[in-house]
Description:
This protein is of the alpha+beta class. The chain is built from 14 helices and 20 strands. 31% of the residues lie in helices and 24% in strands.
Amino acid sequence: MYDLLVIGGGINGVGIARDAAGRGAKVLLVEKDDLASHTSSSSTKLVHGGLRYLEHYEFRLVRESLIERERLLGMAPHIIWPMRFVLPHDAGLRPKWLLRLGLFLYDHIGGRKILPPTNTVDLRQSPHCDVLKDRLVKGFEYSDCWVEDSRLVVLNAVDAAERGADIRTRTECTGLKRSDAMWQAELKGPDGQTQTASARIVVNAAGPWVDRVLGRAIPSEQHQNLRLVKGSHLIFPKLFDGDHAYMFQNRDNRIIFAIPYEGKFTLIGTTDQAFEGDANGIDISPEESAYLCNAANEYLKTNIHPDDAVWSYAGVRPLYDDHSNNNSTVTRDYVFEYDAEDGAPILSIFGGKITTYRKLAEHALERLGGLGATPWTDGAYLPGGKLEDRNIDALIARAAAEYGDIPAKTVRRLARAYGADIDAILAGTGGLGKEIAPGLWEAELRYLIAREFVTTAEDVLWRRSKLGLHYTIAQRQAVAAWFERELDR
């Protein structure tokens, strides 16, 4: 008998599971695929306030997001780090006074303490003059943060498990039956076998499938609360040097980002397109690819074409349908639906964004009565996040000196991925083992299997890391072959 059954292994589900487990609750989380398989690994990889949400008067959401931005930076500085964004002013679009006003609010309504403030930049000077078209002469530079989104999900799940939560991936909740005091859940595991579990409360954090889960739990009602909005991204060989990103305004009042990605690439995204159908296995459409390239080419001196992209990804945002006429103006705020009329309660989660997941979890448990304990996650480090003064560079330097026989770029990648837990891989008693692909040793793979719920090569190459982007087809196949051998033992 569990206190809480959480359905969904995206950022909201794992955040709630972690918070509840830390309060002493007995928690079971089930995810039908791998952790962060869908929406939570298909983001633009930002922990941000949402500058454009100010135009839609979502001041509460922006303020909460800005406060959470610095909290998360302190909790996980190895996978979250500051980034400066350059917003060019373009004649005929939003006027300079409006951009200044928006950025003034952005700097001040969230109690910014760590990140530097906005400043004006001359786009005729290097490095911007080499990147942007000559008509762009002035812009504004502001702060937000980059996040390894799928690792944020995984580290929350790891922390939840270390606090006693039962985390089951490749396990689908195929049935829910309610009585006065509890839920009986039918669970289909990775082996195809069905088990049952009972819980006092169900949290439905199934993302794009939240209405489907509600249909299983309360079949007597119609459930059409979601608006699915597709967001797609293209990845190109590096388009500009530097650690800064660009935010480009479009003629349709939307914006896109151009962001340094994985050292060797530039990420361009995102789109906002209404979506219907199966949310599994979504790909970018030719129309979206053209839209992103055309929008970027309005600003970049070097024109890009969809054929130049080396990779793409797409996902759907499970937003609460507020009946807005425009997909870009649908609220990104989270909404709860609570039902306890016929017995044991179920809480369903709609919307939300990566930046506010921790606060969403607090509010969700508050809605459920707090489980008899007080909130605790504010300031609590995620695994690997306890670094003195948030100084990841000091950790990299120490690890590079201590493990001098390992390539420096591999040490840096491992430090960024595992933070203070890097020694658990590099100083393991069994040694590093065989190098399966460049910079990827058996020791890391076994660590991921033992601690981070990994069962396939894809889990490693695209969610626990982005090594798949750097490897050849043959190198990816070598990792897959290693898993096949290990699973056959």
